[in-house]
């Protein structure tokens, strides 16, 4: 009995490890959001010239310097090596825990987290709409047992290589950037390329992403195609590459190859809602309304997939296909159906002005005597 009491009196302790550089605009917000729920804060600065270190000093004395070598994994591994508590949490400076997720985190720490758990995954909210609803989300290993000495891998778009027992929590970390160095990652990849480094399939994919973000569409296409040709990519990255190739060809006004890669995504898994909406949009633009209706309806009828680590586009799973079906049915004079789909969209975004506009317009057709 004494042993049981002692165990209850020995809570699991958590270190927060972060790497930062010139984050004065967001770091305080991040650290304030986790104050009181972690037991140690370790800040590794990679060369700040603003007030980042002064802000960090308001929350911790554990501030260290790491000479930047264009390698995010190296910096994160150094930060992890400084941790002294049972588990390590990692965040970026423009991440926050919202109040609801702070409470969930405390519950995890006090009740759910047991020493046999090697890693805890958490949701990562990448974007929200004007109503605060999450529009895109994925899952990441976020909290790991320190004694396992898990390592970060990859100079850019690094990932934490973990093993063992995982606990999949419903805690969400919310990404809330104000600004970022848009050229940094591209420059790192290009320097690695000049140095003659061989890119892994993952490198090819993320290098292509950087090229796409910089609107270098033809170069992006080359590296997405090289990535897919390796046949070694993670399935979610394969599907992502197909979507991004479709985007590239859309910007280049090449509808044939745009369609090719939308359909190629179906070879990796059953159709995803966002690809069905891509097809719906393609046919809507071409005024091929029966085809557009088919694909938008398909998006609304897909079963929600089991929990996935890939990027989830909630708009295409919820309101967007219904709003587009409203447009399609209205164009062919099926106003009652258009109205019904507009109301379906309204369940997800009731205050959107497009919903109110459509409702007023359609009522004039389905309710005699109502004016436009």
TrEMBL record:
InterPro entries: Glyco_trans_2-like, Nucleotide-diphossugar_trans, TPR-like_helical_dom_sf. Keywords: Transferase. Signal peptide: none annotated. Pfam families: Glycos_transf_2. GO terms for molecular function: transferase activity. Residues 15-133 form the Glycosyltransferase 2-like domain. PANTHER family: GLYCOSYLTRANSFERASE, POLY-BETA-1,6-N-ACETYL-D-GLUCOSAMINE SYNTHASE. This is Glycosyltransferase involved in cell wall bisynthesis. It comes from Propionispora hippei DSM 15287.
């Amino acid at each position: 009995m004494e042993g049981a009491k002692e165990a209850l009196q020995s809570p699991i302790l958590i270190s927060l490890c972060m790497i930062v550089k010139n984050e004065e605009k967001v770091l305080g917000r991040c650290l304030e959001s986790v104050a009181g729920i972690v037991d140690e804060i370790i800040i590794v600065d990679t060369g700040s010239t603003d007030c980042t270190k002064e802000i960090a000093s308001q929350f911790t004395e554990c501030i260290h310097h790491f000479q930047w070598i264009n390698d995010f994994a190296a910096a994160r591994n150094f930060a992890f090596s400084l941790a002294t508590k049972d588990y390590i949490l990692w965040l970026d400076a423009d991440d926050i825990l919202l109040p609801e997720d702070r409470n969930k985190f405390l519950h995890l720490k006090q009740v759910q987290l047991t020493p046999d758990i090697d890693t805890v995954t958490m949701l990562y909210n990448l974007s929200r709409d004007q109503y605060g609803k999450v529009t895109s989300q994925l899952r990441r290993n976020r909290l790991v047992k320190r004694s396992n000495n898990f390592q970060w891998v990859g100079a850019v778009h690094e990932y934490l290589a973990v093993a063992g027992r995982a606990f999949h929590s419903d805690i969400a970390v919310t990404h809330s950037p104000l600004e970022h160095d848009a050229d940094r990652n591209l420059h790192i990849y290009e320097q690695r390329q000049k140095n003659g480094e061989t890119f892994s399939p993952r490198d090819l994919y993320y290098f292509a992403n950087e090229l796409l973000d910089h609107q270098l569409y033809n170069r992006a296409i080359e590296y997405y195609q090289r990535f897919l040709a390796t046949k070694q990519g993670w399935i979610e990255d394969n599907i992502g590459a197909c979507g991004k190739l479709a985007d590239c060809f859309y910007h280049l006004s090449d509808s044939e190859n745009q369609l090719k890669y939308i359909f190629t995504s179906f070879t990796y898994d059953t159709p995803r809602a966002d690809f069905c909406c891509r097809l719906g949009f393609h046919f809507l633009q071409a005024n091929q309304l029966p085809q557009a209706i088919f694909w938008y309806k398909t998006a609304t009828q897909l079963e929600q997939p089991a929990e996935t680590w890939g990027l989830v586009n909630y708009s295409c799973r919820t309101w967007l296909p219904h709003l587009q079906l409203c447009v399609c049915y209205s164009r062919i004079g099926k106003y009652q159906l258009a109205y019904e789909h507009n109301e379906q969209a309204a369940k997800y975004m009731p205050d959107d002005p497009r919903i109110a506009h459509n409702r007023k317009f359609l009522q004039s057709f389905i309710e005699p005597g109502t004016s436009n």
